[in-house]
Structure formats: C-alpha cells, structure tokens
C-alpha cells in the first residue's frame, strides 16, 4: 500500500508528547550548521515539519521534524481537494 501523508494544516499529537503540532510541510530535510560546515550530503528526510498548535510559527527553534510513525493521535486532518490529491501523488515519488 502506498504511503499517504497528512495534508498541511493537520493537527497531531506525537507519541510521548503533550503539545499538539500543526503540520506545515512534508518531506523535509533537516540541515544543521554542522552539515553545512562538513558539506554533508547524507541528510535524513522526515515526513513532516510542524509547529506548536495553536501558536503556529514562532521561530526556527520551535519547528519540529518528525515521521508518520511518531504520531500517536491525529486530532484534525487538513484540507484535501483535487490539488492536494495530485500533490500526494508527487510526494509518493520522493
């Protein structure tokens, strides 16, 4: 079965977490200063990037990358239309 990622705007609670996160990006590479300094091309891709809910984006230090397997509960699923469904097809290729 093909993996379908949650749409942007989805609200989740991670395993062991007590603060909800809102998804605002998918298929994210986490690039640290150390990666840049060492010119590291072997980066880890994460399923999602999220921010605390309901606060939203505050600064880069309060953005979190995580994988679908880290989700304990899907509180709300974001908006899905034809455009999102087409984008899901592209995401499956990454």
Molecular structure report:
With 94 residues, the chain is of the alpha+beta class. It has one domain. 18% of the residues lie in helices and 32% in strands. It contains 2 helices and 5 strands. The protein has a 5-stranded antiparallel β-sheet with strand order 4-3-2-1-5, with no helix packed on it. The longest helix has 12 residues. It is globular. The model has no long low-confidence stretch (mean pLDDT 91).
Helix/strand layout:
Elements: E1 11-14, E2 21-29, H1 33-37, E3 45-52, E4 64-66, E5 71-76, H2 82-93
Antiparallel strand pairs: 1-2, 1-5, 2-3, 3-4
Pfam family, one: DUF4176
InterPro entries: DUF4176
Protein name: DUF4176 domain-containing protein
Brief digest:
The protein has two helices and five strands, in the order E-E-H-E-E-E-H.
What form results from the Cα inertia axes?
A: globular
Instruction: Find the structural class using helix and strand composition.
Output: alpha+beta
Numbering strands along the chain, what is their spatial order in the largest sheet? 4-3-2-1-5
Q: Helix count, per DSSP?
A: 2
The description of the largest β-sheet is: 5 strands, antiparallel
The helix-strand sequence is EEHEEEH
Low-pLDDT windows of residues: none
Give the quaternary arrangement of the chains: single chain
């Amino acid at each position: 079965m093909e993996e379908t990622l949650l749409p942007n705007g989805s609200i989740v609670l991670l395993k062991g977490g007590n603060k909800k996160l809102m998804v605002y990006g998918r298929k994210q590479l986490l690039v640290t200063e150390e990666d840049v300094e060492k010119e590291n091309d072997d980066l880890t891709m994460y399923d999602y990037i999220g921010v605390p809910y309901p606060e939203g984006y505050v600064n880069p230090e309060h953005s979190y990358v995580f994988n679908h397997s880290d989700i304990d509960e899907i509180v709300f699923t974001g908006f899905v239309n034809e455009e999102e469904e087409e984008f899901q097809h592209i995401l499956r290729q990454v």
